[in-house]
Amino acid sequence: MDSNTSTSAPPHHEHLPQQVIDNLAKKIERRPTREELEEHHVLLKTSVAPALQAKQVELERSRLEDRLEHMLENRPTREELVDHNVLKNTTVAPALQAKQVELERSRLHDTLDVKLERRPTREQLVEDHIIE
Fold it and tell me: How far lies 5's CA from each of 2, 16, 56, in Å?
């Protein structure tokens, strides 16, 4: 056996330049942990075997679709929303509804002002023997 020949296998990075090795080492140091990858939804947070993960995701999606379909089937009608004052009962185009509400408030304000102006004074109420 030759004294220069090594009996162990040579390292895999012997043929790579040192700059490439250093660059790879830095990237490996900055590589995110499994927990970080799970937080960013790159990896699934699951205890299921990798071979079953796709089926688990498919099942969860199917359950979500079923729940959403059930919620849509049971959502309240427009009339129920109007009855519960969630929606306004209006035939005005949606773009004009804010103006309609503003005009209604203005009308109510004007009506209230007129009624307050016509309200009898305290002295008139005493003269008419309504209050003492």
Answer: 5, 21, 54
Angle (CA) 75-77-82 rounded to 5° is: 120
Tell me the three-class secondary structure of 89-122, residue by residue: CCCCCHHHHHHHHHHHHHHHHHHHHHHHHHCCCH
Q: Looking at residues 90-116, what average pLDDT do you find?
A: 91
Q: Mean pLDDT across the stretch 14-37?
A: 89
Q: Please tell me the total number of residues recorded for the chain in this structure.
A: 132
Cα-only R_g, the chain: 39
Residue 77: closest CA among 86, 68, 66, 65: 86
Distances (CA, A) of 95 to 4, 82, 104, 108: 88, 18, 16, 22
Dihedral-angle region of residue 51 (phi above 0 means left; psi in -120 to 50 means alpha; beta otherwise):
alpha
Answer for the pair 56, 46: CB distance below 8 angstroms, yes or no: yes
Q: Which residue has the higher pLDDT, 4 or 40?
A: 40
Q: Report the predicted TM-score, pTM, of the whole model to 2 decimal places.
A: 0.42
